[in-house]
Design goal:
This protein has four helices and ten strands. By secondary structure, it is of the alpha/beta class. The chain has two domains: about 25-70 and about 130-180, 3-Layer(bba) Sandwich (FAD/NAD(P)-binding domain), CATH 3.50.50.60; about 70-120, no CATH class.
Length: about 190
């Protein structure tokens, strides 16, 4: 049994029988939010050959980190190692933008030793924005998604002031900063449709 070609699970490209329209943009996946999870989801989809759009309220906030930016530690370090094994971008960006690295919990047993890197937050944000901008099959867009329409066949996401976006699926990765209204109630962070 042979594997399907990369991107075979994604929608068909525009052809004479499936022309793109001027009023609606078609994507295989839309990602709402350009933080850690949104960046990794978008890059994974695009690297699999899907046409992906990433929406963020402000392009300067792509990959934004807190005022004490670190990657690693006893909990997040496990996730970072898993991302590294799966080809994720966060470990590469952490290596490229590290200011200092430490091994935590050296006074305890080896099972809880954990590497942690302090990151230059501006360099990290620039690295991640560049990674998204340079990725084939991926569009980075500054827009506020005002609603997401559940699909009978596709997901609709009209950014404020736009004609509309249609996709086969979407990823909510907006974190705790923004909330998408669904049925009149605010959504919990990371909640899907």
């Amino acid at each position: 049994m042979s594997n399907p070609p990369v991107g075979a699970a994604c929608g068909p490209p525009a052809t004479q029988n499936n022309p793109p329209t001027n009023t609606t943009t078609h994507y295989d996946i839309i990602v709402v939010g350009a933080g850690h999870a949104g960046i990794e989801a978008a890059l994974a989809g695009a690297r699999l050959g899907c046409r992906v759009a990433v929406f963020t309220v402000n392009l300067d906030w792509v990959g934004n980190m807190p005022c004490n930016p670190s990657i690693g530690g006893s909990s997040k370090g496990q996730i970072v190692r898993e991302l590294s094994a799966l080809g994720g971008e966060m470990p590469r960006a952490a290596d490229a933008c590290a200011i200092q690295c430490r091994m935590l919990n050296l006074g305890k047993g080896p099972a809880v030793h954990a590497p942690r890197a302090q990151i230059d937050r501006r360099a990290y944000a620039g690295y991640m924005k560049t990674a998204l901008e340079n990725q084939e099959n991926l569009d980075l867009k500054q827009a506020e998604i005002i609603s997401i329409t559940p699909p009978p066949t596709a997901v609709g996401a009209p950014p404020r002031g736009s004609q509309g976006i249609v996709a086969e699926g979407h990823v909510d990765a907006e974190g705790e900063i923004s909330r998408l209204p669904r049925g009149g109630a605010p959504a919990a962070a990371g909640e899907g449709v």
